[in-house]
Amino acid sequence: MTATDTPRVATTVPLDWNEVWFTNCPMVSANNVDQELGWCREEFKKLGVEYAYFRHAPENNWYPHYVHNLDNLIRFGGLYPPIHVHADIRRTVLLGATWVHEGGCMAVRSRDPLFRIADLRGKKIGISKSLNTIKNDWWRIQEHMGIETMLKIHDMTMDDIELVEFPYPDDWYDKPAMLVPPMNNPSELWMRRDHKHDLAFRPLETALRDGTVDAIYTQSKVFQHLQEATGKVKMIEDLSRYPDWTIQVANTPAVITCTDVMADEHPELVLAYMKAMIKVGRWANEHKRAAGAILNRQTFYLDAEDTYQGIKDVDMVPSLSAMNMQTIGIGKDFMVSHGYIKNDFDVADWARPEFLEKAAEEVLKEEWERRSWSKLPAGGGLDVEGVRLG
């Protein structure tokens, strides 16, 4: 029996509300910065709650990251898996989002006489297909959405090209080396793999290089510069260069989700997490190069400077802004219309902005108390009346 034939099961530790687990994707987010700062852990210590990376416990395999079957798990990561979870698996709560313009590129071999999307008419474009059915096929959705958008911009459709499907095992989650505990920090995962050069994360690149296909989709900025650095690949289209922000959905925005059980029965835990994300996001906004150096350890930018260039205009404080909500809706609608989820839902109903709003209020209150203490005779909080500073 091969790895792909082996039944996969998402295993978890017993539920204990004195613990909160976190998981994230190797993307731009405050959580990926915080895993090195530890500010979120401090917020939970104030509550007497243990906060840890979900793979720290051997009972948790990798699949809770995709199916959210831990009630006390908070996830900050790519858009498509949590949409799938909320639509078809279990109810979750949308808490915030961080958006990076990474609509995607069309990659071809560097010496091929292909210079624009129109040159791909009648050519072969690859698309991956995960054989791991327990999890969402987020790579394929991203490729599908990006390819379709690029063709549409150039007055073409899928009928104008030959789409070549590449099934792959997508089974690294089940390999013994990836299940060795404990992992105290997501960065430990990437210590076990040369993730910036591991083609398991770029399953179509080999097919492009050897000429099996003529073009493949890849992410703008991330992956793009790693692939170009080989000298074997060039980009003939880049959606991130267009002014149309609605075409920048590429498993982004990264979103924060928790279970409805956590939100309804233990709101103080959600609030602690969101306070930390605001604090870390503000720090990252003020120290973009330091944040870039941290994120470079986990993401797929070329190096720390490339990471900085990718995040320098990104607001690292999570939000549920109107644009973020629209982009989440765009991603969800694509998944519905192309059969990647079975059930539709209203994104506005998914969001619970009260947690972000309350967290922001508490962060500002704490900041006021710190700053006012040295100026007022007896200190003071926001409820101090009749006192003017200055």
Automatic annotation (TrEMBL):
This is ABC transporter substrate-binding protein. It comes from the Bacteria. It comes from Fodinibacter luteus.
